[in-house]
Amino acid sequence: MSIKSILATYTGSASGASGLGLAVHMAKKYDAHLTGVVWHGPSMMESHYSQYMTADIEEILRARDSEVVAGIRADFDKRVAEAGLEGRAEFLDLSSGSDLSLAECARAYDVVVMGLAELDMGQRNFAARPDVVALRSGRPVILVPSEYAVESLVENALIAWDGKRAAARALGDAMHILETKEKVTVLTVGEAPPARPGADITDLLHRHGIEAERIVRAPGRKGTGHTILDAAREVGAGLLIMGAYEHSKFSEDLMGGVTRDILENAHLPVLMSH
Fold first, then answer.
1. What angle (nearest 5°) sits at the alpha carbon of residue 236, between those of residues 27 and 265?
2. Topology of domain 156-273, per CATH?
3. This model's pTM is above 0.90
């Protein structure tokens, strides 16, 4: 099985361009269909001052958003044409008032590719959170840092493995990608896992025809997230695979955590599942 349907969120920003760039590379590699999607909710003015707005002001705000969406669609079409994907690409416009949420839409695709949102104040309502999509959609989400740009895919993947449910889910969701990689490394942060027959995931990888190396790293002073990213640099990984929010999202937001550290500091695409 391989990837045949990719959903890429696009905002027209630098972060959106990084995500769309990776999605285009993936669509070409896997001969997959690419769907671009822009999600937008109410503007800050609508959210906070709707009760004071006249119908004319509301119409002006809606017209502004329509112009933004039209520009994003035109840029998406241009990038698709430049990549030679016109025959297998489409564009969707989802608003918060639609009967289809972004998470629900994501469930109809093999993988979702998203850039980290870095939008101007006036366009914050076009920002969609990849961690929330990963939590609610049940589909793997590849998060792409805004500065990420490559001429071709880096065929080297790192799996952050702690033996827990979320990591196992991410591994399963990423298997059809891992089967196409030239090098795969399994990283454990902390003590090396004990040798237990039937519990070694490298056996699973080998049975899928994936040659994988295991490495163990002690947690650094900056925490597990930074240790994982340092290991990714060390092995030259082009994709990090990890589970998202093994603990509750509320506790991670309140106290920080591995998922949050990765989201804020990643230098490479990260495939997350929950």
1. 85
2. Rossmann fold (3.40.50)
3. no
